[in-house]
Fold:
Amino acid sequence: MNVLLQEVLSLIAKRIISPVTLVAIDGHSAAGKTSLAKTVERSFPDVATVHVDDFYRVMNSSDRVQLDAKGGYELYYDWQRLGQDVLEPLSQGQAGSYQCYDWTKNKLSNETVTVEPRGVVIIEGCYSARPELRHYYHARILVETSAEKRLERQRERANASDEWLERWDTAERYYMEHLQPQSYVDLIVKGA
Structure:
């Protein structure tokens, strides 16, 4: 196990509280957040992971294309729904529940996902530790990977144009440069 992974696991272990410990794993797209979340899942006995991608905002595609970097940061994801439906109830010791965004239909799924208030709950995805949500977490981790490596991974996994990837990345860069999560997270790690 590498030193940074040991630091992540140690940080979470030190922050464990009952009934639920909330952990944000934030960072740019394709930085290694999901891989880190999976490693944490294997390292603790009772872990649930909520993906920020499930909170992509239902929006008319022509409106989405018009968003600038700040608008993308503010509106690509429905962070209000994440806070209201998941983080707030869990922080009160109650179950959270939500409907996932359906990426093929641009609507919310009819199925409800329930997150029980126990163990470790990881909120994994870019913008997970944004200023409006950061107070909910017991541990906040930022995963950093070079822009070149991230773009290579994005091109491998996404069926998207370079124009779309650039728009997406511009919003993420706005978040990192203007809101600076690196200044208030508990730990910064290099992505896999």
